[in-house]
Prior knowledge:
Oligomer: single chain
Number of strands: 0
InterPro entries: ATP_synth_F0_gsu_mt
Largest sheet: none
Distance between the termini: 13 Å
Radius of gyration: 24 Å
Family: Belongs to the ATPase g subunit family.
GO biological process, one term: proton motive force-driven ATP synthesis
Order of helices and strands: HHHH
Structural class: mainly alpha
Protein name: Mitochondrial ATP synthase subunit G protein
Number of helices: 4
Shape: flat
Strand content: under 5%
Subcellular location: Mitochondrion membrane
Amino acid sequence: MASKLKQLQSKAGQASQFLSKHGTAYYKQLMEQNKQYVQEPATVEKCSELSKQLFYTRLASLPSRNESFWKELDYVKNIWKNRKDMHVEQAGIAALFGLECFAWFCAGEIVGRGFTITGYHV
């Protein structure tokens, strides 16, 4: 256990050194590349306005998202009705999609338990 702690401390020290050497240059490069997205002056009022714009823009997109959802659901219902005509490739894609959904569910459960498999903290 002590050796793992030393390893972790060593890795943390290396990461800290890397950030202290290269962090400022990376920050400057990132800000230069994305300067068109920066609002000047950065006031509380402007930030509040942008936050409201984002919220209401997302809210306005709900009807089109809802419509897309129902189209997808109708497509799945149609495939299910005609499942006898389904090809092996389509069945494989559906199985992979189901497996992916299950994997995301499991990953979400693990994250929700604090990144533990059993739910018990050691």
